[in-house]
Design brief:
By secondary structure, the protein is mainly beta. The protein has seven helices and 43 strands.
Length: about 800
C-alpha cells in the first residue's frame, strides 16, 4: 500500500469505528416495546419420554427455568429478538437452540437430550455456543472447524493473521514456530500471549521461559479461540496480549473415522487418520498425524503427532484423559540471509547442516462433578515434558558482511523442560431477587524445571562434545482467581475479576565460562561451579468488563484489566562475568530484582448485526506499559540492543474493525457467498525517555515505533459454497512496513540484521468438492502465496527471513 494511502486507510478505520458506535444506539432504539413468549418441551433421546428437572437458560439474560413433571417450561414477557436457549441435564448432555421472537408472538422450542453422555471438552476460553462472543465483556474471536477445513492452513499462524489485532511474524515458511503479537506487542516466540491447548498451557515453561518453540498442529484442531480483553483475567500467567486456545475435537457420538492424504509442491506431504466413537458410558478417539517437506526454501522437516482422548461417565462424575506425543526434526536455523544473498537467491538455505529436534509428551487428566443443576467443579491435572535440542554451526561474516563464513565447529543449544500442575475451577449460576450472576473461581499449583546446556562440537555436524554451559532452573507458582458476571438487567452485564499470582524461582549454574588472570595470561574457559540464587514476586491482577446487549443485534462492551508477565528466570538471576585471579572464588548469582512486566489495558468496542446478512465489530484499545522488559535473547535479534533492566514505558493505542457480509443471504440465493474484511491500526511507541547506545552516541528513542509493530495490517476473504459440496475461498493479508530495531533504522545493513521491512501483501486460494460417485470423499486443493510475492518477512533472529514462496497442495479426504 503506498504511503499516501495510509491516512485514508486510517480514516476509513476510524470512520467505521464511529459509525458502528452510533449504529449500535440506532439499532438499539428500534426495539419494540411489545413482548412475546418462549415455550418449550424437553424429551429424552431416543425414547421421547418427558424429562423433568432440566435447567433451561435464556443465554445472555438472567432468566432460567426448570422443566416440569411433563417436561414443559416457559419464558413469558420476552422482548422481540433472537435468543439462544441452553438445556442441560445434571451429569448429562447440553443442547442449544435458537428462537426468533416477534412482537406479541409465542415461539415453541423442543429439546431432545440424551440422559447419559460423556463430555471431554477441556476448559474453554470463549466457548462453542452461538452467543458466546456476545456474552464476553471484551473483544474476542473464534475460528470454527468449517473455516479451518475449507482454508486448509499450513499452520496456525496462517489462520491467526486473518484476525483483527493480530500480527504474525513468519520465520521458516512452514509455520513450525509461532510468533504471534497482539496490538503492537512483540511477536517474538509469542512471549506476550498465553497459548493453551484445551485450556492447558503449552509453552516450554509457562512462567519462567514462555517461548513457543512447540506449536500445536493446526491440522488436528476443531476450533481456535482468541480473547484480547478483560476476559483473559481467568487465565495466566501471561495476561498482557491475551489468551489463545487451540481446541481439539471431541470424540464423535457414534463410531466414525476419517483419513486425509495431501501432497504439494516443494515435496510437502500430510497424512492424518482419526477414529472415535461412544460405547455405552465410554467415549474416545485417537488421531495420527504425519507431515513434512523436503525443500521449502531449503528447509526439510518431519512432524509426527499422536493424540488420544478417553472419557467415562461414572458415579463420581465425568472422567477424562488426554495424551499426546509430538516429534519434530528439521534443519531449521537462526541464520538468515544477508542483503546480497537475498538479492541473488531469496529461497536459499544459509545453514543446511543445522538441526532442530523437538520431542514432547503430554498428559491431562480431568474430573468434572456437578452440584445440583447450577454448579460444577472441573479439575485438570496436567503434565508435559519437552526436549528442544538445536545444533547450530558456528559462523561469522566476511569483511563487508555480505556473506557468512562458517567454521568447522558447532554450538548445540540443548534444553529440557518438565511441567506439572493442577487447576480446579468452580462455576455456578445464581439468582438473588432481581439480580443473577455466573460465578467462576479457581486455583492453580504449578511446578516447572528446566535443564539448559551449551555443548561445543568439534566438527560441522557434531551434536556432542565439550559442555560449555550447564544449568538447572526451577519455578513454583500458586495462583488464585475469581470472576463474577452480574446480570444487572436482562441486557446489562458487569464482570469484575481478580487474579493473584505468586511465582518463586531459583537458578543453579553447574558449569560456565570463567574469566581468569593467570601468570600465562588472560583466559575464559569452562569450569565446573556451583552457583545459585533465588527470588520471587507476588502480583495482584484486577480487571473489570461490561457488556450491554439492548437487543440480540447489538453488543457494546468495555473493559480494563492489568497485564502481567513474570520475568524469565535466566534474565532475573545473573552471573557477573568479571575477571578473577587464578585462586579467586567464583561469586554467587545476583538478582537484578526485575519486576514483573505490567500494563494497564483498556478497550471499548461494539458488535452489531443491523441486518441478518451483515455484521460489524470495532474496538478501540490502549495498552499502557509501565515496565516493559526487553530480553536479550538470540531470537529477539536486533531488538536486544539494550542491557536488560526494568526498562520503563511503552504505549500501544489504536483501533481494529471487522465486517462480514453474507452476499448469498442478502440476495436470497441458494448458494453461500460470504465476504469478510478486517483491519487494525496501532501506534506502538516508547512513551517515555529511554537512552540507548548507538555506536559511540547515546540516543533517546522516546516516540520511536517499536520493532515488529506494523501500524497497519488488514486481511479479507471471499468464500463460496454451492451445490454438490463445492466450496471455494480466496484470502488476502496486508502487513504494513515495520522497523527491525529500536532506532527506526531504514537503510538495510549488509548483514541483513537491521533495516526497514517493507510492506507486503499475500493472496491464498483454496477449494473443496465432494465426489459425486463417492459421497463420503472430498477432493481438496489450495495455493499459498498465489501471486508468487517475494518479500522480507523478518530480519531476525540473525538475518533476512523471506516469506513462503508459492506453494500448492492437493488432497483427498474420506470419512468412514
Amino acid at each position: 500500500m503506498p504511503r499516501r494511502s495510509l491516512p485514508a486507510a486510517r480514516g476509513l478505520l476510524i470512520s467505521c469505528f464511529l459509525c458502528l458506535f452510533f449504529g449500535s444506539f440506532a439499532v438499539a432504539s428500534t426495539a419494540v416495546a411489545q413482548t412475546g413468549a418462549i415455550r418449550g418441551h424437553v424429551v429424552e433421546a431416543p425414547s421421547a419420554a418427558p424429562l423433568p428437572g432440566v435447567l433451561v437458560t435464556l443465554l445472555g439474560t438472567a432468566r432460567a427455568a426448570h422443566s416440569d413433571s411433563s417436561g414443559y417450561f416457559s419464558f413469558p414477557a420476552v422482548a422481540p429478538g433472537r435468543y439462544e436457549l441452553e438445556a442441560r441435564i445434571p451429569g448429562g448432555t447440553t443442547v442449544r437452540q435458537t428462537a426468533f421472537v416477534g412482537a406479541g408472538e409465542s415461539v415453541d422450542v423442543h429439546f431432545r437430550l440424551a440422559s447419559r453422555a460423556v463430555s471431554l471438552v477441556g476448559i474453554e476460553v470463549v466457548g462453542a455456543p452461538a452467543d458466546a462472543l456476545e456474552r464476553l465483556p471484551g473483544s474476542a474471536a473464534v475460528v470454527n472447524g468449517d473455516e479451518l477445513r475449507i482454508r486448509q492452513p499450513l499452520s496456525g499462524g496462517e489462520v491467526l493473521r486473518s484476525l483483527a489485532g493480530v500480527h504474525v511474524q513468519e520465520e521458516e515458511g512452514a509455520g513450525l514456530r509461532a510468533n504471534v503479537g497482539v496490538r503492537g506487542l512483540d511477536p517474538d516466540r509469542s512471549r506476550t500471549l498465553l497459548v493453551l491447548e484445551d485450556g492447558v498451557p503449552v509453552a516450554l515453561a509457562p512462567y519462567g521461559e514462555p517461548e513457543m518453540y512447540y506449536t500445536p498442529p493446526i491440522d488436528r484442531m476443531e476450533r481456535l479461540e482468541l480473547v484480547k480483553g478483560s476476559g483473559s483475567i481467568l487465565f495466566g500467567p501471561q495476561t498482557i496480549g491475551g489468551v489463545l486456545n487451540y481446541v481439539t475435537a471431541e470424540p464423535p457420538a457414534r463410531a466414525t473415522g476419517s483419513a486425509l492424504l495431501q501432497l504439494g509442491s516443494h515435496r510437502t506431504r500430510l497424512a492424518h487418520v482419526g477414529y472415535g466413537g461412544t460405547w455405552r458410558r465410554i467415549r474416545g478417539s485417537v488421531g495420527l498425524l504425519e507431515k513434512g517437506a523436503r525443500d521449502v526454501m531449503g528447509l526439510h522437516y518431519d512432524v509426527r503427532d499422536v493424540t488420544a482422548k478417553l472419557g467415562a461417565s461414572t458415579r463420581i462424575g465425568e472422567l477424562g484423559l488426554k495424551a499426546s506425543i509430538y516429534d519434530e526434526n528439521s534443519n531449521a536455523t537462526y541464520v538468515g540471509l544477508t542483503e546480497a544473498m537475498y538479492r541473488a537467491d531469496p529461497w536459499q538455505h544459509p545453514a543446511p547442516d543445522d538441526r532442530l529436534q523437538i520431542r514432547r509428551q503430554a498428559i491431562t487428566a480431568s474430573h468434572e462433578a456437578e452440584f445440583g443443576a447450577t454448579a460444577r467443579l472441573r479439575t485438570n491435572l496436567y503434565a508435559y515434558h519437552t526436549v528442544r535440542d538445536w545444533r547450530r554451526q558456528d559462523y561469522g561474516f566476511n569483511a563487508d558482511s555480505s556473506a557468512h563464513v562458517f567454521s568447522g565447529t558447532t554450538g548445540n543449544r540443548n534444553r529440557e523442560f518438565h511441567v506439572i500442575g493442577i487447576e480446579p475451577r468452580f462455576r455456578m449460576t445464581w439468582i438473588s431477587g432481581t439480580i443473577a450472576g455466573e460465578f467462576e473461581a479457581g486455583a492453580r499449583a504449578h511446578y516447572e524445571r528446566a535443564r539448559d546446556q551449551h555443548i561445543n562440537g568439534l566438527t560441522p555436524t557434531a551434536s556432542d562434545g565439550e559442555v560449555r554451559d550447564d544449568e538447572v532452573r526451577h519455578g513454583r507458582a500458586v495462583a488464585l482467581f475469581a470472576q463474577n458476571r452480574f446480570f444487572v438487567t436482562d441486557h446489562l452485564y458487569v464482570t469484575p475479576g481478580v487474579r493473584l499470582e505468586r511465582f518463586s524461582y531459583d537458578r543453579n549454574v553447574l558449569r560456565t565460562r570463567i574469566r581468569r588472570q593467570t601468570p600465562a595470561g588472560s583466559t575464559r574457559s569452562p569450569e565446573d561451579v556451583d552457583l545459585g540464587g533465588s527470588d520471587g514476586l507476588t502480583e495482584l491482577i484486577p480487571g473489570i468488563g461490561t457488556a450491554w446487549t439492548p437487543s440480540p443485534r447489538v453488543t457494546v462492551f468495555a473493559g480494563a484489566h492489568r497485564g502481567f508477565a513474570p520475568p524469565r528466570v535466566k534474565d532475573a538471576l545473573v552471573f557477573q562475568d568479571t575477571r578473577l585471579g587464578s585462586d579467586e572464588q567464583v561469586p554467587q548469582l545476583q538478582t537484578l530484582r526485575l519486576d514483573a512486566e505490567r500494563s494497564v489495558n483498556y478497550e471499548l468496542g461494539a458488535r452489531l448485526t443491523p441486518l441478518p446478512f451483515l455484521s460489524l465489530e470495532a474496538t478501540g484499545f490502549l495498552l499502557d506499559f509501565t515496565n516493559q522488559i526487553i530480553a536479550p535473547s538470540l531470537s529477539a535479534g536486533a531488538v536486544a540492543d539494550v542491557q536488560l533492566a526494568n526498562q520503563g514505558a511503552t504505549r500501544h493505542r489504536g483501533a481494529e474493525a471487522a465486517v462480514m457480509l453474507d452476499i448469498g443471504k442478502a440476495l436470497e440465493q441458494p448458494f453461500g457467498l460470504v465476504a469478510r474484511v478486517s483491519a487494525t491500526h496501532v501506534q506502538a511507541v516508547f512513551s517515555r525517555d529511554r537512552f540507548l547506545r548507538r555506536g559511540s552516541d547515546t540516543v533517546n528513542v522516546r516516540g520511536n515505533q517499536l520493532p515488529y509493530a506494523p501500524r497497519l495490517t488488514s486481511s479479507g476473504s471471499l468464500a463460496f459454497s454451492g451445490a454438490h459440496g463445492v466450496e471455494l475461498r480466496a484470502d488476502f493479508t496486508y502487513v504494513g512496513k515495520q522497523f527491525s530495531d529500536n532506532f527506526e533504522t531504514t537503510e538495510a545493513s549488509p548483514s541483513g540484521l537491521v533495516g526497514l521491512i517493507p510492506a507486503h501483501s499475500v493472496w491464498d486460494a483454496s477449494g473443496r468438492v465432494r465426489l459425486p460417485f463417492l459421497p463420503r470423499a472430498t477432493v481438496t486443493g489450495s495455493v499459498k502465496n498465489l501471486l508468487g510475492a517475494t518479500y522480507v518477512a523478518s530480519r531476525r533472529p540473525e538475518g533476512i527471513k523471506p516469506g513462503l514462496p508459492r506453494t500448492a497442495f492437493v488432497g483427498l479426504n474420506v470419512n468412514f
